[in-house]
Amino acid sequence: RNQTRLLNGPGVPAIIGEAGMKPYNFKEIGRGAIEVEMYGQVVENRPIDWRTGEPSKGLFIVLSEFLQDLDKYRDKEEITFRLNSVGGDLFAGIAIYNRMTELKGDTITIVDGLAASAASVILQGGKKRKVFAGSQVMVHGASVFMYGHYNQQELKKVEDRIEGGNRSVLEVYAEKTGKEKGFLKGLMDSEEW
């Protein structure tokens, strides 16, 4: 069976964390406020090590786990999300972004180091957004990881999925930045930092 995985993250290996480090942490910083550190790769499902069949080690922000934890804090007055992520699965990033926009309180997103690809979509989820002078944001179009054998019709379906993913991201960027879609598409096509 052919496998495709729609990505919006750079082609780099998964971040391997230090002992005791977690891909995200929720910390109460006041009675009505929390801070969420998101320091990992965004994935729909926890990757499995093909050699061992066991869950891969690394800093993975797993969509279902993250949303379940976020739901516990949905009524907080203020939630600050601190990002340092290479990105990852496109629709996992969009799902996190959408859930962030539904939060009742003030939401702030801060790029501590890197918000690349799908993490740049998550960055847009804050009502207030901040990027430090030394931090970086990277945007580009969707890509796929593929293996197997494909015929022309199957490849056209993959192309349609990529185009659909690009339209989704473009809508988010346009809505949150107020920039023209043509300008934003140019940034995505050329992979801009």
Give a structural overview.
The protein is α/β, with parallel strands linked by helices and 193 residues long. The protein contains five helices and eleven strands; from the N terminus they run βββββαββαβαβββαα. Strands 2, 3, 6, 8, 9 and 10 form a six-stranded mixed β-sheet that branches. Strands 7-1-11 form a three-stranded antiparallel β-sheet. Strands 4-5 form a two-stranded parallel sheet. β2 (24-30) and β3 form a beta hairpin.
Mean pLDDT: 91
Determine the fraction of residues in helical runs and give it as a percent range: 25-40%
List the uncertain runs.
11-18
Largest sheet: 6 strands, mixed
Structure summary, number of beta strands: 11
What does the radius of gyration come to?
17 Å
Which oligomerization state do the chains in this entry correspond to? single chain
- What's the overall geometry? globular
Instruction: Count helical runs.
Output: 5
Order of helices and strands: EEEEEHEEHEHEEEHH
What is the end-to-end distance?
Answer: 36 Å
How large is the share of residues in beta strands? 25-35%
Question: What structural class results from the helix and strand content?
Answer: alpha/beta
